[in-house]
Amino acid sequence: MLKLLLRKTCWCRARLVHEIHSRVIREPGLTQSQKGPDVLVWETPLKQVLEAQSVTEAFFRSRQRWISVPLRSFVPLGFHLSGTVTEPAMQSEPETVCNVAISFDRCKITSVTCSCGNKDIFYCAHVVALSLYRIRKPDQVKLHLPISETLFQMNRDQLQKFVQYLITVHHTEVLPTAQKLADEILSQNSEINQVHGAPDPTAGASIDDENCWHLDEEQVQEQVKLFLSQGGYHGSGKQLNLLFAKVREMLKMRDSNGARMLTLITEQFMADPRLALWRQQGTTMTDKYRQLWDELGALWMCIVLNPHCKLEQKASWLKQLKKWNSVDVCPWEDGNHGNELPNLTNALPQGANANQEALSGPLQARLLFWLTSGENARFFWEQGGKPRNLQNTQYFDSSNRPHRTVFTRAIEACDLHWQDSHLQHIISSDLYTNYCYHDDSENSLFDSHGWPLWHEHVPTACARVDALRSHGYPREALRLAIAIVNTLRRQQQKQLEVFRAQKKELLHKGVTSITNLEGWVGHPLDPVGTLFSSLMEACRVDDESFHGFSDFMENMGQCKSLEYQHLPAHKFLEEGESYLTLAVEVALIGLGQQRIMPDGLYAQEKVCRNEEQLISKLQEIELDDTLVKIFRKQAVFLLEAGPYSGLGEVIHRESVPMHTFAKYLFTSLLPHDAELAYKTALRAMRLLVLESTAPSGDMSRPHHIASVVPNRYPRWFTLSHIESQQCELASTMLTAAKGDVRRLETVLESIQKNIHSSSHIFKLAQDAFKIATLMDSLPDITLLKVSLELGLQVMRMTLSTLNWRRREMVRWLVTCATEVGVYALDSIMQNWFTLFTPTEATSIVATTVMSNSTIVRLHLDCHQQEKLASSARTLALQCAMKDPQNCALSALTLCEKDHIAFETAYQIVLDAATTGMNYSQLFTIARYMEHRGYPMRAYKLATLAMTHLNLSYNQDTHPAINDVLWACALSHSLGKNELAAIIPLVVKSVKCATVLSDILRRCTLTTPGMVGLHGRRNSGKLMSLDKAPLRQLLDATIGAYINTTHSRLTHISPRHYSEFIEFLSKARETFLMAHDGHIQFTQFIDNLKQIYKGKKKLMMLVRERFG
Fold it and tell me: What 3-state class would DSSP assign to 380?
């Protein structure tokens, strides 16, 4: 009886296997006659191959392998597939043979082994080749029942022969195992004999066993750990992004391994030792690494929002997420600054019932806990009990709140559900309308067309769209996306109506605190990017084989160019609208949203980066008349929506600037509506955070949940980038306005009013100058004047501040003024005191204007030259009066050709010589006077310079020594009287013995100048050292030598003895010039011997040299 029961069971199992192998699933590209087992066709080889490292590396290489290379010993055995794949010989490698085995169960590959030894989380090419062979050549494969069924049909002799042959063929591998099993079977008490039956790897699992796609968890962990250990090198970031793309593709295929794989990845991310190190050192993680964490959080958001996940699964994920969230090193949502918003993911009403009722239950309690904890908290309630405004709440004190991490939103999303009837109708039907619905309240379920709306926290609603897309529900995601966009458009209209009702009051105040605390661009959930991608996918015209893998390929950087068409949606869109127009419009709505600048470097950089990424996607779309209408519509709304728009007339002082977005709008609208383009760009030029006046706060009209506390001044870490974008916008307008006087004046006025960086204004001035003086066209005089005006503003801004480019700016301005014309040069010289320092005005401006190159460049006539020269001389004299120390020489040079002006400049120098000028400046001017042929004026200035000089005994290398020698030589050349007059000054100012002796020798070598004062001729005799003025100089020189000698001996060291002896030798030469010099020197030496007799070695050297 038992034997019959076993036969019946085996027959049923065999029948099941036969049915599975007989099932026909048509694969794209195959004819109906080509058949393969359901298990291999069902999403597996083609999908998995395309998810591998790259399309060419895995799929096509594997496809070529099974086509060109015969597979040997190909055996489909029950639920097991095995075969041998030959690796063709390469130039440097011999042919290799790989043994491949695949197990499958219920349309899933559950196990994979290959002897190639490749360690990777993806299927190797040999496994793919074997799978493709089975799919493409089913007629060449003989199916077999599981091995247990075959063994059951054998008698005792056949079984014995089977076992013995098996051992003989593989005796080196299986003989020890065979003997061990034989011993256990023969032992009555062995574990094997305690179990009925025996395992069969080819029979598949039982119906109660868990089945899932094969995933090598150990390899996943090792790969992620390896990539993380490489930091930002070796393309590790790209590899990790590929893993994330793999997870998204698995979710789209509804593969249960998606969550498993993401869990493994997250565990390795959390175990990264750099997290603790960064937290300990207080440093921030790298930007690319931070983006990986963002993607990790977004993927978990998709996981927990799976519309068909079981409650047990969600509970398990929530438990794991909370565990990671509680770890100290878990990264915060916005870098080092946790997002200061309360639980907005699920604190707002959602669904049909919630759209009509006030917050209730735990959600209300949670929101009230956050928003009413402060003593001064107060709510503005509308009908139905909805909170509308909040002011001065304790919520804004970040010290009282736990930080939000990258997993916080996923944890909050676990409270969301999909059971709302209104939501279910939206995503399940294209026909869900209510044309009789007339509720025009803010949270109505349908709009005036009867089309469904979905009122929910916008990022959360968009996260639902992303979850639907990620889990393989593109149609449902598209329906919900359309409902959200229609809701946003209706909200726009409502906001416009509100602002128009209060426009007069707001414009009178001039300030407002109405703002969005949470911007959609740069948001962790990327709501605008999600809506845009969903709608664009619906209008994509692409190759069929490529469709479905675009997200994966984009992450690999191999996305081919795509084309988009206006594919009309038959429901819920206006006439003439399409998915493409809707995608563009929602992108414009998001980019133009008025939102406050977030705290923290990373959050601010993310806002800029996401804005640029979204604009780059828009730039890929070719604009047609339909899209231009959308641009016009949104531009008009942005200009007229007041504080609800980033381009409104009155916006919050700390709103995110619109420069980058406005530049894109400007370039897009300019060919079609220039007036609107300029109006938009000019409105966006402002940068309110740099304005000097702070707003007083306007709480008259709230926006969303709360209005921020006024006068909050966060650090704008990206301010330099923002200012550069502002500069780019202005430059774009200047370029476009070339030749249009009115527009150039308007743009110039906007630049002067809104740009606060002198460097950026200077760049704009240079750009305008280059555009105006292009080689292939005549200079644009209007644009040149704009360039000059900008340059003048730069001069005024940097006049009293330090700027390392100031000299370059001054030179450039003179060049620009030269291009404009002679009147511009004359103007800047007449108004120099508001533009330049006196030194710049004389040494750069006036000198360049008076140069021959400028005269030739402007083709000036004599009258124009004289007018410029007169202005330059006036400038020079004014500068010399204001700053004689630095401008006197330049003033004299500029006034050379005008006797009166030159005399005036000289008199200014004389007047300033006694108080405002030092000896170096006076000596320089004196040398100039001698060079110009005014020796007596040079002598006068030299004597004035000597009165400011003081050379001590040890300053024998002082830079003024040459000037002193030159002054004495000049006096000597003029005559005895001049020399006699300057020698007392020299004796008073110079105490250095070597300098005095040098002057003394020079005066005794030659006769004083043949022409003295009043034209008297000198005698031609050498001056006597016994008479004045040389006697005074000689006595001073001897005295200087005596004083210097005593000073040196005070701190002399043995290594300076020889130098000291040489010094005494020079002193003796000077002593001997006196009538009784020999006696004086002998007495001097004797005194030294007596006073410094303790320095025996030195005195011995003195005796040897001088006796």
Answer: strand
